[in-house]
């Protein structure tokens, strides 16, 4: 069953899926290998072996079917891993999480509130028509049209106007200096579609009937609802360095983790992202290849109620100290990952100097596992005997492990604790509907970033932000974050983000648990993928060819 | 079958009834009583469908959660977007008006638009219906062949080892949940032996049938016991009847007696059970479809419930209810044709 996942906030994404999918026990397959007593060995790979040549076609499995391939609604693993190969954005988010020019050959920020994009010449849509500035204006304007109800509205929340200001020039004016707008142009928020296609397809644009017409290395040729999506190489693609090495990519959907692992093991499907953690060992025994790559996702517990015992920072700190995070990482993620004390991963700090990045992750409070000290903190805070409620849903093994571990941890330090189990869609509602969060103190999330900027994460924790679920408010934090949003220099901005990271680490509006790599499998027929969570926006399938 | 097309159903049933009537030698002739009976059945059928439509539509309002908020999937909406999108899907109207719109549309085969796919519900369902139909038909054939055979074999050998072995075998099979059966079948026949694909429904008819061998087997396993046991019980009862003994004593061949007297008279209960089976198969198909990654109605239903996609849920539930009610109405009408005694009241001589 495909669980719901959601993501939220000002460009933050919550990942439920991968894990979900990965979490079901693989019964009935080969006998479980003895569970390793030590963490498995894995290392990050930036790029798998280059292909020996082109391949006619390969297939790829996803945990779920896209809701929609309309870029305005695509903001989930299922949608974006397909769309990334078909539609391109003004900027390109590369596998190393850097932003480089995309459909905009250059951009300028002449005043703090204007972004000027020069549109690349010689680019054609899949129907052969040339890309123009008018297409850019039409595509971007949909995000601020309430009738569209774009999922990416938050990127555009400070946009005052989007205008064509020259033959190949588009200017976006914002109400306040907003560096984050441009950082979002490497994702779905920056996708450009033909204005004529948008007008022609209307309400069916992006569904399995209307399809899409973009500029990427692959063209969306067929979508059999519930069954498969087929992409075909676009021969007139503008960027020679990313010309597709496969004539065709066929996506199939399998909600069941066991089914996915079986299909990969038997060679029925050539590859897939987000491997079920229980299946990784089995897949490593095949003639294919499991790779681990850059991720921007962090697993956290969101504190959604500061009116209760968790309103006292000492109780939040105590709860984190009472969580055996090494044990949780082992049980929930089979050890693929690392315990983290920050809400971001180093991979989104590309704009910072090494010194700044190191500073951001050094001197963080580590909250070592210490139940005794934690219990004393709770006593100090006078919260002993008070109750916390942890919401969870039958979405995956990680949800079960983490909710139970949290209850046990809370009880071990003198709090009362109970689990509130809701349906997957009710769980999704926690992220968008304040009434759904009533009576819930904590819930689990895996939050990934869609732009190479830690401010995407910390901006969410400002007072009054949509995804600041606990209503946490720290005037000093707000002041630094608001200032940072307007700082154009990436290094100077990263220094501010480092300050924010340290405040969040001390105040714990969310409790950081662990981070884990992006996983990908390539069967014996194929190679060439860059293992990175950038697969959500970068045309990753173009580099895959024959092994 | 045209889902929700109320005008089509009576005709379907009437045709079936006529066909039945013209073949039936004993009952179901065009007598006033017979026609009244059929009309009564049809009235009941329409009433059932109407009540079901009320239940199916208004139960939506008992489910917590705003489908439009769900559509935003946790993203920060713009101020006016929620209102606009709500209006687009007609969710701003009072419930009774939404119901009338829905019924009016449904009578034309228009079930509105799917929220998750942003597409016409009829398109979404139409693309997935064939897989489920083929799956259910294949499973149904398997159940009929295996179940009837097992039941007949057991009945003819009642009390002997073969009878017990058959019963035990059926019971063991029925204890295997569809989901477990699916996993075992995949791991043995698809992964280890490689005889069948692990997932999907293939392209074209032959390939589809090939892809659906394992899923339909997994689906059939649970229900074989039902048909097998009912067949056995029913046959055993008939075998003990006087007229069978009379027929045998008159020197009629055993095969003829069993075919004409025993089996034919046993069909009533078997058909009744088959009607229940249709609903059971449709429900169980959700599990099997998920395990085999089939894009059928079952997996669509589960997913749509999960995603608060009410238009799709309502359409599928109405479809299943309609199928169930119509099949059972047909069986009711056919019963006297097959078994004259049920029309003539209790005529056990």
UniProtKB/TrEMBL annotation, chain A:
GO terms for molecular function: peptide transmembrane transporter activity. SUPFAM superfamilies: Periplasmic binding protein-like II (SSF53850). Residues 1-25 form the signal peptide. Residues 99-463 form the Solute-binding protein family domain. GO terms for cellular component: ATP-binding cassette (ABC) transporter complex; periplasmic space. CDD domains: PBP2_NikA_DppA_OppA_like. GO terms for biological process: peptide transport. Keywords: Signal. InterPro entries: Peptide/Ni-bd (IPR030678), SBP_5 (IPR039424), SBP_5_dom (IPR000914), TAT_signal (IPR006311). This is Peptide ABC transporter substrate-binding protein. It comes from Agromyces aureus.
